[in-house]
Amino acid sequence: MLLKDARTYQIAFLSLFLLLGVATRDWTLRPGMLLVTIATCLTTQAIATLLSQQLSINKLYSTPSALPTPSPYPLITSSLPSALITALGLSLLLRADHYSTMILAGVAAILSKFLLRVNTKHIFNPANFGMIVALLLTNDAWVSPGQWGESGWYVLLFLGCGGLVLQKVGRWDTTVAFLGSYALLEAARNLWLGWTWDVWAHRLMSGSLLLFALFMVTDPRSIPNARIGRLVWAIAIAILTFWLRNQQFVSTAVIWALFVLTPLIVILDAIWQAPRFTWQPPATTNPTLITEN
After folding, report:
1. pLDDT digits over 255-284, tens only?
2. Could you report the per-residue pLDDT of 61-95, keeping only the tens digit for each?
C-alpha cells in the first residue's frame, strides 16, 4: 500500500537530497534544525487535523455526545506524510540562525492548509508559504538558490527522481510548461544579448530551480485542478520568475513568483472546472468527515 502512495516516493527522494546536500555540498544545515522542523510540522498537522475533525463532527451532529464518534487516528496518520514532505521541503530550501524561525515557518506552513482555503481547497503550497512568512517576519531567515551548484549528475538525479513522482501523480504537464516557458524566455534573452549557449545552459542547470519545478510547483493538492489551468498557471510563474530574476535581480525569484501568483489558482479553477486531486483516503465509517490536507 505504501508503494502505491506517491508521497512515499517523495519522502524518500527528498530525504536522499538532504543527505546528499549535507554530505557533498558542505551545507550548514544543523541536525537540530532538521529535527525541530520535522517535529513542528508533524505536531501542528496532528493537532490541526484533530481540531478540524472535531469541528466537522460538531457541524454534522447537533448532539455529538449521543452518537458514535469516529476515531481521529486514521485521519491523523494519513495526513502525516504530507506534513513530513512539507518539513523536508523547508529543510532543503530555508536556512535560519534560530530554532524559533524554523518553528514559525513550520507552523505557518501547516496552518495555511487549514486556514487559507477556498471551496475546501488550500491554495498556497505549504512549504512556499512557510518560507515567505519566515523571510518577511524574521531577520535571520534566508533561501540559498545556488546551494546545489550546476553539477550535471545532480540534474540527472533530480530529473529521474522527480520524474517518477510526477508519473505517479500525473502532473508532468505543469513541470514541462514551467521549464519549457522559462527556457524559451532565457533563450530569447541569450540571443538578444549575443551570449554563447553555455551561458543559457548554466542558468537552467540550477539544482534549486529543478527542485522547485519537480517537487513544489507540481504539488497536486495546491495547483489548478484542470490541465489547461495548470498550463496557464505554470507559464505565468515562468514569466514572472524571468522578470524578477533578470529585471529586478531577485535571486529567489521562483519562490516569490509562486507565492504572488497563488491567488490566480482560484480564478483558474473557476474558469476551468475539474475534479480535485485526492490521496487515497483511509477507510472510515463516515466519509463526510474526511478532510485531506
Report:
1. 999 999 999 999 999 999 988 777 654 444
2. 555 555 555 555 566 677 788 899 999 999 888 98
And the C-alpha cell for 249?
Answer: 535581480
- Long-range (24+ apart) CB contacts under 8 A made by 13-20 are 13/161, 13/162, 13/164, 13/165, 13/215, 14/85, 14/88, 14/89, 14/92, 14/215, 15/88, 16/161, 17/92, 17/158, 17/161, 17/211, 18/88, 18/91, 18/92, 20/154, 20/157
Beta bridge partners of 282: none
* Alpha-carbon distances, residue 144 vs 31, 57, 122, 228, 250 (angstroms): 18, 43, 27, 32, 12
Predicted pLDDT of residue 169: 66
- Is the dihedral angle over the CA atoms 36, 138, 45, 113 positive or is it negative? negative
Q: What is the pLDDT of residues 143-169, one digit of tens each?
A: 876 666 556 656 666 667 766 676 666
Instruction: For residue 47, give the amino acid letter.
Output: I
What the block records as the C-alpha cell of 35 is: 529535527
As a whole number of angstroms, the distance between CA 88 and CA 109 comes to 12
Q: What does the alpha-carbon distance between residue 130 and residue 141 come to, in Å, rounded to a whole number?
A: 11
Nearest to 293 by CA among 95, 50, 57: 50
| DSSP secondary structure string for all residues of 116-154 | SEETTEE-S-HHHHHHHHHHHH-SSEEE-TTTTTT-HHH
* % of the chain residues with pLDDT over 70: 76
Distance CA(293)–CA(291), nearest Å, equals 6
> 221 and 116 in contact (C-beta within 8 Å)?
no
**Which residue, chain included where needed, has cell 495555511?**
112
- DSSP secondary structure string for all residues of 211-264: HIIIIITT-TTSS-SSHHHHHHHHHHHHHHHHHHHHTS--TTHHHHHHHHHTTH
**pLDDT of 283:** 42
49 pLDDT more than 60: yes
